[in-house]
User: Fold this.
Amino acid sequence: MKTGFVSIFGKPNAGKSTLLNALLGEKLAIVSPKVQTTRHRIKGILTEPGYQIIISDTPGIIEPRYKLHEKMMQAVRSSLEDADLAVLLTAANERLEETDEVFNSLKLRVPAIVVLNKIDLVSKQQQEAALAFFKSKDYCRDVLAISALQHQHVDTLLQKILEYLPEGEPFFEGDNISDLSTRFFVSELIREKIYYLYQEEIPYEATVLIRAFEEKTTLTKITADIIVQRESQKAIILGEGGKMIKKLGTDARTSIEAFLGRKVFLELFVKVRPKWRDNENFLKEYGYL
Ligand code: GDP
Ligand code: MG
Assistant:
């Protein structure tokens, strides 16, 4: 069994998210905009017979022109240390020298391959030139050309990635959904819907705690608490006659079902915990820190 961690690096707009989706396909695809914090790096787990790849997205790399940028790049670098492979992603129509500078500034300590994306936008000639350019660089073990958007050569990339991963046991059980990180993503999916449905301070002062996660034969029964800071917020979450929480429950259940690939029975409760965001014990209980 091949198993390991892959981090995708690249400038904003290189196509990192698109590539992540393309690699994950219809599999255990966990891509939520709300997971984009340094605390929660794991974005997608691709489990197949014979391998498991944990693919992370990273903050977009920007040219370190200012001190602030250097600090941001340090964060990117530190997120590299436990990866088995770095995928350096660049759009084929980007300026090569500039991209090279950015990749070089990473001072990579893990093996890296350069993946030229968006080849659908450039000529074969331009593509070959770019590949040759990166192939000669010290940080680059291998080069590959893809179109993440059009799913061109994504399988080739997958095979290439596997060459760099060590043998080992899977980190996550593919169908064991009582796994903590599955719970985490489920809570994020509920939280995401709160962002869409409620306004003003509500999303920022609310969090979600999964209370129970039971796999039944035909469905998964999930019980979750929505934690808010004030009674007035609880009333808003519930809505008139419970209208809003019903909508929240339906929306969240739909995306959790898509995520888990099975039927879900979702039960939501609202709890008031004054100033939970400033309370060490609550923060810990809710999975922060
Ligand atoms: P990220 O900022 O690196 O995560 O980039 P995104 O994945 O959000 O992609 C940025 C833009 O590039 C989006 O509009 C994508 O549709 C587009 N894009 C990504 N991959 C390709 C590709 O292979 N070909 C083309 N033409 N566009 C792409
Ligand atoms: Mg992105």
Residues 2-164 form a domain with the Rossmann fold fold (CATH 3.40.50.300). The pocket of guanosine-5'-diphosphate (ligand 1) is lined by residues 10, 12-18, 60, 117-118, 120-121, 147-150 (CB under 6 Å).
